[in-house]
Request: fold
Amino acid sequence: MVVCTGFGGLNVKQLISKTTVDALPAGALLVDTKIDGFVARKLPSGKVSYGFRYRKNGKQWWLGLGVHGQSGTTADTARAQAKVFQGQVAGGKDPGAAKLAEREKALQAKQAARNTVDAVLDQFVKRHVEGLRSAATVKQCLDDYVRPKIGSKSIYDLKRRDIVDMLDAIEGKDGELAVTADRVLAYVRKAFNWQMARDDEFTSPIVKGMARTKPAERARDRILADDEIRSLWKALGSTEAGPEPFRKLVRVLLLTAQRRDEIGLMQAEEIDGDVFVIPGDRYKTGEINAVPLTTAARQWIGDRKSGYMFSATEGKRPFSGYSKAKNQLDAVIAKQRKADELKPMAGWRLHDLRRTARSLMSRAGINSDIAELVLGHKLPGIRRVYDRYSYAAEKRDALEKLAGLISIILNPPADNVVQMGARA
Reply:
């Protein structure tokens, strides 16, 4: 129904019916003699448009009642609707203003549908994230943690409670993923600030104080002791310690000293023989990092020919659900340590495995520069510019020695605690 303000001069005053409408000349306006405000207008095209006109609060209104012959509109159906409007006006109501309010509400709803969190994130990623070296990590965080929780909501309906619930779900009951929650919060805050700069109506629900950790807490020095490494490896042999892709992935994290997402997003196309080539667009330094794959690491990676190597969907998508899987792993570790009469294992994070591997390389006598190169760090000072040697052999030797030391830790000479091989 079209709502217009203002209307033209009157031409003919007569009872509106099919007969009188058919006889109406083009451009003429027919005013009904029974219902005040009911009119019919013959358009230059020959079509007849019905309407109801009235005056309210000094403003003239025209409410469209349809075009004759379209959508079942006839003189009788238009008259019936005009009678309803006449009654509303007589009762002090303003049907024109009500219709405008309905149209405005519908427009806002349509606008809101175009401004769901998913839609805003799509635009933010396209215009701001694409091209960044951290693009893959940002997209993965948004896909894993944000879209499933609040993606379908309109940004205009978002409350602080929605953000808090999302962060609670990421952090987990024991706060294991508090740092991850803060990282996601930072990405979402940036996306919402970007939207606020473009949208007069949107105000971000993110406020100060939502972070889950303090700056000092974000720097960690936790490494796993030998007995904890043995407990971890033993637990990873249990099907109760999370899905198989997760359990394999955790082993590879310790054996390669790489970050979670660098291993978790590994694809078959990135494996060249016995070297894992991590693309620069998803590596923290922005440069390609070649990671030699030892026999110990390769047995947990598998031999999939395409797609993601750690996947519960036959390589179609990378593994997700780290929080739940980590909780399952911790539960098995706690159960087994209790049965072995060991004290409970202190809280730990997957990233602690990278720090543990680095410490083990020092313990194995690996040169500090080589150990740092294994981690993907750059050489210090001027050497970064002039030393372009790849150190591939040295990095492989370092990872072989790391695997050897882990094997010794898992199988102390005095008693075989747990085997490192695929049968563990």
Q: What stands out?
A: The longest helix spans residues 95-113. The chain is about 45% helix and 10% strand.
